[in-house]
């Protein structure tokens, strides 16, 4: 995995900041100071409750999770409109609703003799929630991976905002505006929720390494921005009170929310969610639907891979259906649900229909 810029200089170990080999002892940065303590110090957030970590406690004592009162720390975040403004800084995205943001143009992906995606063409339009569905092995994740630079299409093109992303490096694709979450949660488990989101904001920052070392004005401004945006994002996804909790101590549902917050921190044009409801109970699924709609209404475009049909039908504006690597249907949830090819793909074609 390629580490974000700041992580190449710090090794997070059990939640502690240890100057990494590239930075060495010359930096003057105190080993043992947590990332959060650093950024909080810089941004001027003084929290009365300590961020308790297990290794700080005498043997046998158990760390208590500390809920923070977000209104006390960042009073302006008590206003949901302010939170929404910070979360979606480029609000002009609404001006282009309906135009294609990403186009898959005749994309084929082959693995040896296996064709995982076969000449697939569809658009993701700005401001919509597009569902990508299909039975197991249909090619959904392969399509995601072709968009995000994990796989290079064998043929065809993936165009984002008028420019091809084929051949671009993954971090370049992130910078150009595609962010994703994963089927299996991938968080920095020893880092706090806020630190995890701050990692995402790094993709947008421009400070050079010397700039970071000498703490230039721009670097300090970017750190403050990371905290403000990080806190706003945690509040936006509903876990603002858990900002100082280590990711691994968060309940499963909150870890999924944190993944979404981290992806949004890169200020994507397109947010790709890969089975975000896996392992959720019905109440959590209903809450997730609300969050996905909120993300769309805040100006983002969302691509959703999800097996739960109730969720997909309930939240998507349009749906693309794949089967054996081919697109077999595209349309509104109602159109797709009534399409005989889709019904056959999911339920199997009855014997008497083929005889
Ligand atoms: N890296 C790979 N190497 C070889 N075959 C692969 C690779 N990735 C995917 N495949 C194959 O490509 C086909 C499509 O897989 P893909 O994971 O895209 O399907 P999916 O629709 O996401 O399935 P699921 O719903 O089970 O996650 C499958 O037959 C799979 O085994």
UniProtKB/TrEMBL annotation:
It comes from the Bacteria. The keyword Nucleotide-binding applies. Residues 102-349 form the ABC transporter domain. Pfam families: ABC_tran, BCA_ABC_TP_C. One of its GO terms (cellular component) is plasma membrane. One of its GO terms (molecular function) is L-isoleucine transmembrane transporter activity. The keyword Nucleotide-binding applies. Keywords: ATP-binding, Nucleotide-binding, Transport. This is Amino acid/amide ABC transporter ATP-binding protein 1 (HAAT family). It comes from Flavimobilis soli.
């Amino acid at each position: 995995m390629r580490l974000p810029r700041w992580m190449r200089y710090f090794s997070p170990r059990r939640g502690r900041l240890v100057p990494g080999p590239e930075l060495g002892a010359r930096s003057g940065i105190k080993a043992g100071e947590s990332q959060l303590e650093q950024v909080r110090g810089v941004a001027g957030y003084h929290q009365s409750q300590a961020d308790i970590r297990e290794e700080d406690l005498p043997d046998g004592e158990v760390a208590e999770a500390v809920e923070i009162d977000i209104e006390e720390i960042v009073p302006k975040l008590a206003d949901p409109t302010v939170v929404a403004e910070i979360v979606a800084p480029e609000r002009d995205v609404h001006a282009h609703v309906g135009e294609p943001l990403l186009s898959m143009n005749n994309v084929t992906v082959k693995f040896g003799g296996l064709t995982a995606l076969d000449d697939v063409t569809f658009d993701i339009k700005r401001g919509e929630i597009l569902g990508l569905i299909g039975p197991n092995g249909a090619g959904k994740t392969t399509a995601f991976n072709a968009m995000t630079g994990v796989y290079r299409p064998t043929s065809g093109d993936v165009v984002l905002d008028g420019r091809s992303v084929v051949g671009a490096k993954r971090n370049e694709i992130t910078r150009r505006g595609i962010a994703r979450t994963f089927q299996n949660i991938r968080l920095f488990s020893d880092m706090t929720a806020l630190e995890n989101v701050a990692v995402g904001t790094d993709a947008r920052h421009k400070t050079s390494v010397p700039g970071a070392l000498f703490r230039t004005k721009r670097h300090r401004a970017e750190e403050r921005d990371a905290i403000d945006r990080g806190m706003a994002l945690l509040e936006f996804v509903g876990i603002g009170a858990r900002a100082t909790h280590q990711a691994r101590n968060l309940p499963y549902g909150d870890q999924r929310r944190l993944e979404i917050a981290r992806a949004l921190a890169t200020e994507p044009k397109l947010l790709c969610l890969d089975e975000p409801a896996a392992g959720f109970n019905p109440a959590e699924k209903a809450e997730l639907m609300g969050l996905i709609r909120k993300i769309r209404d805040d100006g983002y475009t969302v691509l959703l891979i999800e097996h739960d049909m109730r969720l997909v039908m309930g939240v998507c504006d349009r749906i693309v259906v794949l089967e054996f690597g081919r697109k077999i249907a595209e349309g509104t949830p109602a159109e797709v649900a009534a399409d005989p090819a889709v019904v056959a793909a999911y339920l199997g074609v009855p014997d008497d229909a083929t005889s």
